[in-house]
Amino acid sequence: MKALMQEFPLTLELVLERCRSVGTRTEVVSVGPAGPDRRTWSEVGERAVRIAGVLDALGVARGGRVATFAWNSHRHVELFLGVPAAGRVVHGVNVRLSDEEILYQVRHAADDVLFVDASLTGRLAPLRDGLAVRDVVVMEDGSPVHPAFARCPLYEDLLGSVCPPVRRFVPEPDDAAWICYTSGTTGHPKGVVASHQAAVLHSMSSMTVDSHAISRQDVLLAITPLFHVNAWGLPYTAAMAGTKLVLPGREVSGAALGALIESERVTVAAAVPTVWIDLLADGHDLSSLRRVLCGGAPAPRTLLDEVARRGLVFCKGWGMTEMLPSGTMQHLTPDTDLDSPGAAVTMVGRPTPGVQLRLVGAEGAELPWDGVAVGELQSRGPWVVRAYLDPEDDSNTSRFDRGWLRTGDLARIAPDGTVELVDRTKDVIKSGGEWISSLALEQALSAHPLVAEAAVVGVPDPYWGERPAAAIVATAGGTPPSTEELLAWLGTRVPKWWLPEQIVPVRCLPRTGVGKYDKKVLRTQLAGA
Amino acid sequence: MKALMQEFPLTLELVLERCRSVGTRTEVVSVGPAGPDRRTWSEVGERAVRIAGVLDALGVARGGRVATFAWNSHRHVELFLGVPAAGRVVHGVNVRLSDEEILYQVRHAADDVLFVDASLTGRLAPLRDGLAVRDVVVMEDGSPVHPAFARCPLYEDLLGSVCPPVRRFVPEPDDAAWICYTSGTTGHPKGVVASHQAAVLHSMSSMTVDSHAISRQDVLLAITPLFHVNAWGLPYTAAMAGTKLVLPGREVSGAALGALIESERVTVAAAVPTVWIDLLADGHDLSSLRRVLCGGAPAPRTLLDEVARRGLVFCKGWGMTEMLPSGTMQHLTPDTDLDSPGAAVTMVGRPTPGVQLRLVGAEGAELPWDGVAVGELQSRGPWVVRAYLDPEDDSNTSRFDRGWLRTGDLARIAPDGTVELVDRTKDVIKSGGEWISSLALEQALSAHPLVAEAAVVGVPDPYWGERPAAAIVATAGGTPPSTEELLAWLGTRVPKWWLPEQIVPVRCLPRTGVGKYDKKVLRTQLAGA
Question: Does residue B517 lie within any of the structural domains?
């Protein structure tokens, strides 16, 4: 027996319609070289609707790809809303990638056109001839346009020339809405394609109390760039909730962000741990802040302490591009005992409503949620992908398991569903048939008062197979502790056979484009040491 | 271009799986004649899964209808989860209906079997022979079973006899999950059929901060019966969020509910205004309470004052069975100025994310959201129906307008999306070509210190077409004010031509099965007065 519900496709048109209709009184504030730009969500929505006409004018077909090369601004948000709502696919290119990676992604995604911030035309100029797109549109942000792009059409001109009503391709729920490439720590970057329905449901889940809890009462600062999994989906969530959204542009120093929080009375902001560390060290008035959204990498204990000291809620999420990205969430309140096992850095909370998790052991058997068994975390859900963009990608076989995504994370799950990350499957060190958690070693090393950061990898060993090797960065202005001292420190904190073969002080750790430790590089460095 | 997301049908199996997996530590507490029953959400989920086997044993086919006649208990919640997850349809019959209405509904819904609380077998006994079902199953709640049902199978016996794994029909997102009949103030009750996907999305929306904000941190008391639009969908929401759920059984006096809030440390409860008035007048310790969920009828100002005095948030919703029921939500905090126009009793907040609204004028044109124009409120969304159960129902034409539900409410919408209810289209009084709001007159009369309640209807008038007539109930122990006094009172509060032709003191107002004023009955009474 079928129910008789209305036909109501879950697409980003719903989100666009929502911000236009209920967003007459809430602002989108964008910081740029020309100063802050303020407009209502309704205005942003009206402009996003006109992008359909711009794409028609540019001759982008239904399903065509539109690359962006931009900082977080209202223009970038307009593209993230308007391109999919117009039946095309938006692809945010990470502006911090190498020349080669940028050219690869634009070609691989088969982008038809590219929208670039004026302030980023200089970065793109050397690649101009290699960019495999038909048109480049320059978005005026108050910066001069590099001469290489001087003849390109301007975003405001195109938007202004469109006479609504515009011709539109109506998207379907399973149509592609956006493409984002994974950071590629395991090999070449892989294209993740999100559907409209997945994007809508993911946004709705981010409005739930136990997840990101984004509400109309909030003022949300989206520090995480749009080219990082659509700023964790938060611009769509803000559009749907009618939340005031603050977009920092390129200025993401602690001082710039602190000033923005102070002036816009931001209540919640999203960033990776390193950004939060800089931000909280800044002297601005952050008294409007209520919640810290943090993900992308494990948050050090010192950050948790500082957040608690300020009376804020720390929202610690786990996820990945393949999950758009929300997978789990834990809220640490100022009342949480940070020394309790449940609040450990490795604990990432329960699955976001809608996401299903399971643990799978080395032999492929499902493991119990007993807080003891360690297996690979696998996920299913309405916003989890089942394959990558490239049908030829080997990962389409290796990263999926009978309908589940293999997340590549080793974890335990407690009986109440709380997930504890043990390591990345590719980072875990297999030594004499046993597992050594690089993550646990890194945390134990970082806990030393003279160590700011630590990264641990496995290096080949003729007898054990692999043995751990560590690189450490000393705290600012300090001297790195000796290997003997660190081994003694670790001796009381990890099993004896986990002690690293080498502990090398370095000035800085190699990182990927999204700020994670680049363990491929480190492994080569330490194996050769 | 299609996205490559996982196949993940949104059905109540997802909710069932969720409460089983993450509900090992949160309770479902049911009050019954035998005292409180405590079990975890996981246990409730495990039992719900076994219902598939029970229905197989009873020979209920895929899509078959399962009626319930029960108070709010874990058994009733198990049926609301387990029956749809097993590919059948659950139909909660309102236990307060007349004999005739009960028999009509069970026959009209083509219910195959009926599950009845032992404590309600006495109520059903006179109807035993007329009940058009193949089997009746008795749910033991500690009360004696009426002899008319002495030979019926018992719920626990059936549940205990099922050996998992059970054979199962896997539901699809657009399969019917539950049937609920409207209260029928406009004619015979109409069957509303909810799909699985609609139920899941509605639950997710109830977890969002700006809607019901149900979280795992809450303790939720579901006072609204399951046979009233599935207790507003809150049991599904609680199952999904892993929220401790308290079910009061048949004892819903202010004192019984107060005691339950005190003992279970309830943080949020859902009920109609009259129940809240009784509850807050009770002397129990309600200090655990944080939010008051209220709907079904306009809340009187005295209730809002009392909620604010206690420092609670008043969540004022508007909706209807055809919307499962969530349509809009407004949160009044203790800081809200209840004298401000935005906090008026008639204001019901903004559309719940996912729901779209429009205003349509008498000529069928869409009206602006300017806070002035009055039109019929129409709605669309993933949890709004497009037709009633009965394909022959005239309402399938009259209540829908090109893909939108005609809600039958007259309203204004402010530019920021805030909805103000003006009246029911069927209750509004058409006098000399102008509209008089029965709702506004009722509120003005109720505001008089000696008036507890007031209901206003239109009565036929040879010259004006219709004129307003009022019935009032005096405050407890008080004398009703004279008609002259009330007309003087109204004179400063409503336009002169709105003044009622008659104001009749009555002992109590006629009400429908769900507690709304029965204006059909009142119209007859006052027209004949």
Answer: yes
